[in-house]
Design goal:
About 20% of the residues lie in helices and about 30% in strands. The chain is α+β, with helices and mostly antiparallel strands.
Length: about 140
């Protein structure tokens, strides 16, 4: 799946996604920009639902070694073909009975803490993501 950035401005988010929910109650939240290039196509590595909207996990312009989520309202779908290896799952939110929806590759969906380990730089999790990144970019999954 691929999406094309149509805006990187917080002011373009729908009312249901207040920038203060993303960056905290800072005075300039509405004037901030996401680390995205307008017009650029991004590979989607996972999808979740937050604040009632879909968010895409992509490698944005600040990409270090893991994908970060960005609101779908900032994109148009350029290739809606879903990777055949994707799975659907629900993960528990910390300290809550609430569940969050996730579509991603099996290792992520099947392991509640995969993304935490990935962002912490766990070698195995990073290797798994890097393998899927190559697969997704080559459109072979």
């Amino acid at each position: 799946m691929k999406v094309r950035c149509i805006s990187n401005a917080a002011k373009d988010l729908p009312k249901g996604i207040p920038p203060e929910k993303i960056w905290g109650n800072v005075a300039d939240a509405r004037d901030r920009f996401f680390s995205l290039l307008v017009g650029k196509e991004y590979v989607v590595y996972g999808i979740t639902i937050h604040l009632g909207y879909a968010w895409y996990y992509i490698c944005d312009e600040d990409f270090i070694y893991y994908p970060v989520w960005n609101p779908s309202a900032l994109f148009e779908i350029s290739d809606g073909t879903l990777p055949s290896c994707w799975r659907v799952g629900l993960h528990s939110l910390s300290g809550s009975q609430e569940k969050t929806f996730l579509i991603a590759f099996p290792e992520w969906v099947d392991d509640q803490y995969f993304y935490d380990r990935l962002t912490d730089g766990d070698t195995k999790a990073v290797d798994v993501f890097q393998n899927y990144r190559k697969i997704f970019e080559a459109n072979v999954c």
